[in-house]
Amino acid sequence: MRIITLLPLLLLLVANQLSAQDKAIISGKITNPLSDYVELIAYPNPLIPEEAKTEAELDGNSFRVEVPVKEAMVAELQHDDEVVQVYLEPGYELNLSFNGGKFLKTLKYTGKGANENSYLAAYTSRFDEEEDYQVLPDNIKFEEEEFTEFLDYRRNDQVKSLEKYAAKNPLSETFKAFMLAEIEFSYAKDKLSYHTLRQQILQVALKKPSPAFYTYLSKLDMQRPANLISPSFVSFLRLYTAYLANEAGYGKEQPEYYKARYDAAGRKLQGQAQILAQAQVLKRSIQQGHLKYTEQMLRDFTPKNTDVALNAYLARLQEANKALTAGSIAPDFTLKSVSGDSISLSDFQGQLVYLNFWSTDCGLCTVEQPNLQQLISKLKGRKVVFLNVAVGSDEAQWRKMVQGKELQGVHLFADGLEAEQIKPYGLKDVPAYYLLDEEGRFLSVKARRPSDHEAFNDILQHLNVRQASLK
Description:
This protein has helices at residues 2-20, 103-106, 114-128, 144-168, 173-192, 194-202, 231-247, 257-268, 271-288, 291-304, 308-321, 363-378, 395-404, 453-470; strands spanning 23-31, 37-42, 52-57, 62-68, 73-79, 82-88, 93-99, 108-112, 334-337, 342-344, 352-358, 384-391, 410-414, 432-436, 442-444. It is of the alpha+beta class. Among the domains are: 21-112, Sandwich (Immunoglobulin-like), CATH 2.60.40; 334-470, Glutaredoxin. The protein has a seven-stranded mixed β-sheet, with helices on one face. This is Thioredoxin domain-containing protein. Residues 1-20 form the signal peptide. Residues 324-468 form the Thioredoxin domain.
């Protein structure tokens, strides 16, 4: 009978022990608290913009947070506007103390996971906060060879600091692998973005990298499981697939650009790294790419991805964006022209359409008008229509401006951004520019402004390609 009596108790103890291995506990005390609670913010999937928040009210100056943790992860502990990264593994019981106004500088850890998080805080304070270790604002000014020397020096310093700390303070093997991934891929992403970033910041001509500049890419181990915990690895993958597409001759202006990135990830990566990289590309393609190629990628990706939540998220995103994306049919509308005629967007099928939503009381629209008129003049005689839809409440003022300034192009009027005829475009502000092909499909849902010299080239390039295809 005694055995029977003890059995439920033993089972309960075992169950509690198992559950303890699927969670982490963070408790602590705050001197001079800035608010009456703390929050632990986790990101279960780096591709789904949904936070998992666990809030704990302060009991005096103390708090306790219990969160599910099935595998190693990085989260954020937030108190008021102060935020610190926290590394967690199943079973951690972490205790910390800090001053509310000096979070990172006064942070002290004890308990299981203290060594790992003490190092992470010191690493962040030194390598993420000190300007000498940052690419911006000064190190980006270095020429290619000097910039590589800076990155090499920083990486060596980071590795040595980890080794020195680990020699005196036991660290979990998973944490060490995570930190090495952070070090390696922060190096890789900074080097991969160097030329483009330098051009943008310094306004200098983009130089062609030397042949040896990217050789480090072949030495990267992209299949380590710890990579998937690293935020730097996630950021690197976005740059890496773009680099591979550019090397293959694809630019953002080409409809196949995101498909080229997706395919490159399929060739260069395996396992979860491949899934992560391709999902990143798919997400961006849904929002900015061409519908035809996005649908091809979704058909390939969904069956092989076992993350049900991610597949569902991508499906929802696709459904929300497919009506206003490159390759989809532009929503038709019918509006009154200056002369009072009813004109529809569909009236212009067979011609390229540069669609401009604007307003007479919009300052930027007014600034762009001379550029638009110049663009129209340069393309006169070509098979392109400049369709201008004014949105506003003062139709008389619009007529006066269009007729008084003898504005070229086709001019229509809609009664505000919420006018029923143009509601499918979901306009939030003007100006807004679109480029439509001869079948009424979007070539671009963010066409270049008339003041951009490439706007002329974009239109001309499509017209030339179209003409060549008809021969």
